[in-house]
Amino acid sequence: MSSKEHRSLKSGDERWVIRFRHEGKNCNVPFFTEGAADSFRAMVDTLGPARALQLASTPPTVAPTVRRTVSQQVEHHINHLTGVTDGTRAKYRKIQHARLDPWFRDVLLSDLTRDHVAAWVNAQTGAPKTVFNAQALLSSAVGSAVRDGLVGTNVVKGVRPPRAAADTEEHVYLTHEEFALLSSWVPERWRLFPTFLVGTGVRFGEATALTVAHLDLPRRSAHVRQAWEDTSGGPAKLGTTKTRKSKRTIAIPPQVVDQLHDHVASKRSTDWVFTNTRGNPIRNGVFHEGVWQRLMDPFEEATGKRPRVHDLRHTFASWAIQAGIPLPVIQRQMGHESIQVTSDTYGHLARSDFDAMAVTIGLALPALPQLPPGRGVTP
Fold first, then answer.
1. Separation of CA 281 from chain center
2. What CA–CA distance (Å, rounded) separates 141 from 99?
3. Which of 16, 64, 101, 339 has the fewest C-beta atoms under 10 angstroms from its C-beta?
């Protein structure tokens, strides 16, 4: 015997699903109209599932095609995402407009094929990571169309992204001496801020959202509870942290704590810890252009490196790994959602672990006989 289920989709469309057992498996067949669903159900119950499935491939049970373009589907997907911040939604829209709309604006969702997607991937230029992010958004949008019954399969899945797409973007890691040089060139009024970033590994938007009340200097720690969100051209918005585990308590090096004591001595608990010359939170663009970029030409000439501000976070991770700090501890300090993220991003830096492994395994190996010179095995 069969059963019927009614579904109301987020898109506003409706589906009627007939459930039944066939060849020992649970089967679900969706329909766009209740009449078609009832007719199919009657065939299943009277003629049997096998015959009903044969007959169902002919009209009128074939569902009408939704006339939605791929770009419209991507936009619909972004608008109906839940559990994301306004900044993330704005970032997705920026990817859509720059990468997907020029190619898929006039392609019907129902006409999208794997060849379309492969041609798009091959035509993309720029950083592989950027292409990877755009392809991931496209795949998620088509996947939601599959979930809603608009198309039968996600043709984006299985299309290989650019070769380097799975790799993280190229990081710049500073040595202790290189950061000391860079710090000495930073104007004194701004010097504590990059020192805090490299000493704690926090994100720019997290550090600039700290208030004095978030500091616990006697315990040499700070509570990260909020962050500034990008609103794609508009003013930054104070919101939640990037992920659930980004809301955390971080450790602060003793030298930085000493500097923070003097830095916040005259501030109220509600004041921002790091501010511009007007007492407002530091903005990425202002700090980048007004302070950081002015130092990059001489720094690159002296060291051969041109780090971004965000590379201070990567530098923190490299220093922690060099000091033998376990990856799970680094994960908690940096606010990564999982240890997999930490391992994938910085695992290649843990060379000492591989060296220690080789030595340990070597000690377990039996002693090999010493062969006279020239007595090796000839291949």
1. 25
2. 14
3. 64
Specify whether the CB–CB gap between 120 and 103 falls below 8 A. Answer: yes
Residue 59's Cβ-side half-sphere holds a number of Cα atoms within 13 Å equal to 1
Q: Rounded distance, CA 40 to CA 49, Å?
A: 9
The model's pLDDT over 67-77, given as tens digits with 9 standing for 90+, comes to 789 999 999 99
Residue 350 has a pLDDT of 63
Of the two residues 38 and 229, the one the predictor is more confident about is 38
Q: How far apart are CA 103 and CA 97, in angstroms?
A: 10
Q: Residue 15 belongs to what H/E stretch?
A: strand 14-22
* 126 burial type by CB count under 10 A (0-12 exposed, 13-18 middle, 19+ buried): exposed
C-alpha to C-alpha distance for 306 and 308, rounded to whole angstroms: 7
Q: Report the chain's mean pLDDT, rounded to a whole number.
A: 84
**Measuring CA to CA, which residue among 68, 286, 29 is closest to residue 274?**
286
Alpha helix positions (H), 83-188: 86-95, 101-104, 114-123, 128-147, 176-185
Report DSSP letters for 181-236, one per residue: HHHHHS-GGGTHHHHHHHHH---HHHHTT-BGGGEEGGGTEEEE--EEE--TTS--
Strand-pair category, 215-216 with 237-239: unpaired
Nearest to 52 by CA among 29, 32, 33: 29
Question: What's the order of all strands across the beta sheet hosting 25-31?
Answer: 3-8, 14-22, 25-31
The residue type of 249 is: T
Whether the ω angle into residue 254 lies within 30 degrees of 0, i.e. cis, is no
User: To which H or E segment does residue 30 belong?
Assistant: strand 25-31
pLDDT digits (tens, 9 = 90+) for 9-57: 665 677 888 888 888 777 888 887 888 888 888 888 998 888 888 777 6
How far is residue 201's CA from residue 85's CA, in Å, rounded to a whole number?
22
Distance from C-alpha of 215 to C-alpha of 13, rounded to nearest angstrom: 50
pLDDT tens digits along 309-358 = 999 999 999 898 888 888 899 999 999 888 887 877 776 676 555 565 66
Which two structure tokens, joined as six digits, stand for 368?
Answer: 């090999």
Which token pair is 275?
């501010």
- Type of residue found at 191: R
Among the ranges given (156-160, 319-323, 363-367), the one the predictor scored with the smallest mean pLDDT = 363-367
**What is the pLDDT confidence band of residue 167, given thresholds at 50, 70 and 90?**
very low
Size of the chain, expressed as the number of residues it contains: 379
